[in-house]
């Protein structure tokens, strides 16, 4: 059973929307993560370093997005199985406020600490 005090439909929609947004952002940032290929003659050493740094930052952001997508997928799977809102540690219901703050949390506040 999913958490009885939650609007499961709303949470599902919220998670799906968040995932769609992350996928969009990932797609849009594809270019800035592409291999830095600069013409050595026209671009100075400094701007090449800038480009590499920008690429590294874009990649770090992408890693964060992919992690968030995996967490959302896991939450959607729990909704599917009917175990959403259950603490994976103690099996008690996670507080509604906590789930509304972050629907991808896996543990109740006591077990998370
Ligand atoms: Zn717990």
UniProtKB/TrEMBL annotation:
PANTHER family: GENERAL STRESS PROTEIN 16O, RNA POLYMERASE-BINDING TRANSCRIPTION FACTOR DKSA-RELATED. This is Transcriptional regulator, TraR/DksA family. GO terms for molecular function: zinc ion binding. The keyword Zinc-finger applies. Pfam families: zf-dskA_traR (PF01258). Keywords: Metal-binding, Zinc, Zinc-finger. A zinc finger (dksA C4-type) spans 87-111. Residues 82-113 form the Zinc finger DksA/TraR C4-type domain. The keyword Metal-binding applies. It comes from the Bacteria.
């Amino acid at each position: 059973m999913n958490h009885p005090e939650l609007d499961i439909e709303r949470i599902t929609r919220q998670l799906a929307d968040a995932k769609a947004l992350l996928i969009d952002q990932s797609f849009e940032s594809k270019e800035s993560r592409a291999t830095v290929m600069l013409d050595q003659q026209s671009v100075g050493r400094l701007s090449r370093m800038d480009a590499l740094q920008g690429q590294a930052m874009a990649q770090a952001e992408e890693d964060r997005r992919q992690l968030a997508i995996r967490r959302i997928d896991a939450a959607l799977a729990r909704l599917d199985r009917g175990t959403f809102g259950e603490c994976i540690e103690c099996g008690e219901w996670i507080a509604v406020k906590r789930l509304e703050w972050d629907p991808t949390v896996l543990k109740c506040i006591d077990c998370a600490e």
